[in-house]
Every structure is written in structure tokens, then in C-alpha cells.
Amino acid sequence: MTPYQGRMLDALGDPTRRSIFELLAVGPRSVAEIAADLPVSRPAVSQHLKVLKEARLVSSTPVGTRRVYALDPQGLAAVRGYFDQFWNQALAAFAQAVEKPEEKS
């Protein structure tokens, strides 16, 4: 695991940040829109977004006087790559077990 991937997993380890991440999976939102769906204040949402942004899981775009946050596709690809390695190992082990000749007792 790279330090970059570790930061991503650490960022998603917090339930509030994970909720924000899941809200952004539906579509881009402003801090106010995110805070409206969570039991935390706007300043708290901003702090959580800062952590998610530093972990490269979200990006922001200025729209007028506010910022709109969205999932970062590059960060998502890195997280997926991390988990895919385990899936690929499991599939390879399964294929090996299936192809192994059955032992007779």
C-alpha cells in the first residue's frame, strides 16, 4: 500500500467523511447542500471535505461565491486499484482450486 492509498483509506475510516463521500457519489454538492443532509455544521463539513480533498478523493470547483465538491475520478481509480489487487488474488486462487485435479481418497 502506498502512503497515498493509506491516506485515502484513513480518510474514509471516519463515518462522517464516508457519509459525505457517499453523498457526493450521487452528484456534486456545495457545503451547504452536504450539511443539510447530515447532522453536522457547515464548518465541520468543510473540515471533513478538506481531509477528503487532501486524500484526493474529492475535488472542488468555484461556482460564483461558493465551491461545489465532487468525487475525484483519479482518486477513485487509485482506491479501486488497491481493492482490485485483493479481488484478483481471490479470483486467481479460485481458478487454481477449480483447475486442480480432484484427489481420490
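Next protein, fold it too.
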Amino acid sequence: MALHAPRLRRIRDVVLAGGVGAYPTEGVWGLGCDPLNAQALARLIRLKGRGSEKGLIVIAAGLDQLEGLVQWPRREAVVESMLTSWPGPVTWVMTAAPGLPALLTGGRSTIAVRVTAHRPVIELCRATGMALVSTSANRSGHPACRRGWRVRRVFANQLDWFLPGPLGGQRGPSEIREADTGRILRAAAGQPGK
């Protein structure tokens, strides 16, 4: 909590109380909350105007924060590919741990997770002591916000917390890959799908 310790402590308290807020990620602004708090998840989904069947991405400061959220693939080559891409802007769809909220997984047996290298997100996750939901800060069907002032304009006073800071070096949302196959489900901005 070196850069914004008092602010991060306040945000931690609000997140633990079920608050929803915004923060800068690798390529776009994200909306976040406690991934295990069903009420916070429902509120975040309503804010975006997004279908609950889509599921949400979870972002972590380290592998330790994925404990209780994922089941690791058995194939060593798959795990090696994942670990090679982390920390970094690659999201992997893995088998979900049992008992996760359906709003988080979209009712599926999988969950999308990422271990970030982006300093503001690392500090945020470490301050809260958990991985956080990371979905693009936008209304469903509209472009993801790349400026903090746009987030504030779109969501006005509907957010409980806001962590200012720079975006990372990506030009848009993270690449998403399927852990079992390595197949690209969403290419990173500016990259064609494979």
C-alpha cells in the first residue's frame, strides 16, 4: 500500500462492505467488487446493464489470490503456458472451484482469471486481501472507458469508490484464452484472433 495507503485502506473497507468501484487496468478502466459477494456482483451487473449469463473476469495480484477460485489444469504444459503469460494482460478461462456465485461464473463450470503486472491493480488487490472482479467500465454495448473522467461521467455517483491512476500499456481489453486448449477466445486490442 505504498503509493496511496490511506485511500487504499478506505477502498478496502468499502469493498469488504460490498461496495462497487472503478480502477485503471492494463488497457481500460475496470469496474470491480468482491467476487464472492453476490449482492455486489448483482449491483455491478445492473450498473453495466449486462446479462448475468456472461460471467465476469477476476484479476489478482498473485497466484495466491486465485486459491479457492480455480482448479488448476492437470496438464503441465497448460499450466506452464499460463504461468509464462503471468503476471501480464492475458486472461485464462479455467475450471472454477465449486460453490462460486453463479453471477461470477455466468452459471458455468469455468471462471476467467488474470494475474496482473499493473502496479495500481496489484496494490488494490493486496490492500483488499483478495482478487477482484475486473470488467470493463462501460454500459453494455458501449466502448470501454479509457479515461477516468469518462468513467465518472458514465456512472456519475453510482460508484462507492474510485482509484485514480494510469492505465497500463495495452490499447484495450485483455486477451482471453481457454486453458484446456490454449485457443484465443478474445484477441488483445490490435491483434487478430487465431
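About the second fold: The first helix runs from residue 5 to 16.
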